[in-house]
């Protein structure tokens, strides 16, 4: 009903024109794929000896364990710590106390502005090199600081997006600000923040590839070892990229499932609450 009000139904000419656009776009995409494959074949990038390494069990194990597994571990640790840091900084920026609000603002604005690669390099040479914590944790720390600062703004925006009537009603029954934040605003803000949280998780996973510059483990580090030995830069880049894409798609699918489950349970709870009110 609302769709008919907001948009006019396309007529026969429009439908035919859209079908032509779709067919032309599909043909252009197929032509692009064929051209890329032709260029790869013409330059010898599709030769079996350049792809054989990815069919060798020992190298496959190295790619999956020393590459993919380490990448996922770095991403998971940084996302977990970033959510905690972002929640603390976001609540700090919403605080009425200046001694808490201004330091939180300063930390967020600083680490949001500094490039992640520079954070990794600084952390590595400051506390990672030699007998330090190692490049793995330097990547985690840098990603935590950057993504935590970004998520702080996400949390702050999510809390501010909750209707003011919710907090005003809580204050009216005598709840303190901390109780209102934890029991009223944050639970409702989670639904609003989920798309941005999913996007930031994908960003953190991709940014682990920057650890290559500080000799951190991961897919990019393993990829360098492979193309240095076999001189197959293009096939290696294709395989490593495909692994990143697959993991990101799985992460997005998982987060979307969690979001739908959360929203569905919330709607059921709201319906039950309305029913109880009517009774």
In short:
With 279 residues, the protein is mainly alpha-helical. It contains eleven helices and no strands. It has helices at residues 2-6, 12-42, 48-51, 57-94, 98-113, 116-128, 135-161, 164-172, 177-207, 219-230, 233-278.
Give the overall average pLDDT: 84
Strand content: under 5%
> CATH-wise, what's the superfamily of the largest domain?
MetI-like
The biggest sheet amounts to:
none
* CATH classification class of the largest domain: Mainly Alpha
Q: Low-confidence spans: pLDDT under 50, at least 5 residues?
A: 267-279
CATH architecture of the largest domain: Orthogonal Bundle
The SSE string, one letter per element, is HHHHHHHHHHH
Helix content estimate: over 70%
Number of strands: 0
Instruction: Using the alpha-carbon principal axes, give the shape.
Output: flat
Q: How large is the radius of gyration?
A: 25 Å
* SS summary, helix count: 11
CATH topology of the largest domain: MetI-like fold
């Amino acid at each position: 009903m609302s769709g008919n009000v907001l948009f006019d139904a396309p007529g026969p000419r429009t439908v035919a024109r859209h079908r032509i656009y779709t067919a032309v776009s599909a043909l252009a995409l197929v032509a692009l794929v064929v051209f890329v494959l032709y260029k790869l074949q013409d330059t010898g990038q599709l030769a079996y000896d350049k792809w054989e390494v990815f069919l060798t069990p020992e190298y496959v194990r190295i790619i999956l364990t020393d590459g993919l597994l380490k990448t996922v571990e770095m991403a998971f640790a940084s996302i977990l710590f970033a959510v905690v840091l972002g929640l603390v900084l976001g609540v700090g920026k919403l605080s009425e106390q200046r001694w808490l609000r201004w330091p939180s603002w300063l930390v967020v604005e600083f680490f949001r502005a500094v490039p992640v690669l520079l954070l990794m390099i600084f952390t590595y040479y400051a506390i990672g090199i030699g007998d330090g914590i190692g490049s793995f944790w330097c990547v985690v720390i840098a990603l935590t600081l950057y993504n935590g600062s970004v998520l702080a703004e996400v949390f702050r925006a999510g809390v501010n997006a909750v209707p003011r009537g919710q907090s005003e009603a809580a204050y009216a029954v005598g709840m303190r600000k901390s109780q209102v934040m934890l029991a009223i605003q944050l639970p409702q803000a989670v639904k609003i923040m989920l798309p941005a949280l999913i996007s930031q998780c994908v960003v953190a996973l991709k940014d682990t590839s920057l650890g290559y510059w500080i000799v951190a483990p991961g897919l990019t580090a393993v990829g360098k070892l492979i193309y240095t030995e076999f001189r197959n830069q293009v096939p290696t880049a294709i395989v490593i990229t495909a692994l990143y894409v697959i993991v990101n798609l799985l992460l997005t699918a998982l987060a979307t499932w969690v979001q739908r489950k959360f929203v569905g349970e919330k709607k059921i709870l709201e319906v039950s609450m309305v029913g109880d009110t009517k009774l």
